């Protein structure tokens, strides 16, 4: 008999969580989480540096874009409504 990754055994078919008690379902969940965590592959150092650089460039670009839009909309608002001085 082989052990499956999902934690199901041959004496309990799939979808029979109603037969398990409260703690049995928690234990099944923990086993399934551990099984999924064993599948996780950590990136190499080069990949990690590449991901960090991509995120930093994207964040810098978005900051620049939003700052320019804010400045532009602010100038349009000042042009439309004036700068608060009474005429």
From TrEMBL:
Subcellular localization: Cell membrane; Membrane
Alphabetical list of Pfam families matching this protein: SecE
Keyword entries, A-Z: Cell membrane, Membrane, Protein transport, Translocation, Transmembrane, Transmembrane helix, Transport
Main location: membrane
Source organism, top-level taxon: Bacteria
Topology class, membrane: Single-pass membrane protein
Coiled-coil regions listed in the entry: none
Quaternary state and interactors: Component of the Sec protein translocase complex. Heterotrimer consisting of SecY, SecE and SecG subunits. The heterotrimers can form oligomers, although 1 heterotrimer is thought to be able to translocate proteins. Interacts with the ribosome. Interacts with SecDF, and other proteins may be involved. Interacts with SecA.
PANTHER family named among the record's database cross-references: PROTEIN TRANSLOCASE SUBUNIT SECE
Reported function: Essential subunit of the Sec protein translocation channel SecYEG. Clamps together the 2 halves of SecY. May contact the channel plug during translocation.
Family the UniProt entry places it in: Belongs to the SecE/SEC61-gamma family.
Protein name: Protein translocase subunit SecE
Organism: Kocuria carniphila
């Amino acid at each position: 008999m082989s052990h499956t990754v999902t934690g199901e055994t041959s004496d309990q078919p799939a979808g029979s969580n109603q037969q398990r008690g409260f703690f049995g379902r928690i234990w099944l969940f923990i086993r399934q989480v551990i099984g999924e965590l064993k599948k996780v592959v950590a990136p190499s150092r080069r990949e990690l540096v590449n991901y960090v650089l991509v995120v930093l460039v994207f964040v810098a670009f978005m900051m620049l874009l939003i700052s320019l839009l804010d400045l532009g909309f602010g100038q349009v608002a000042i042009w439309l409504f004036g700068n608060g001085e009474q005429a």
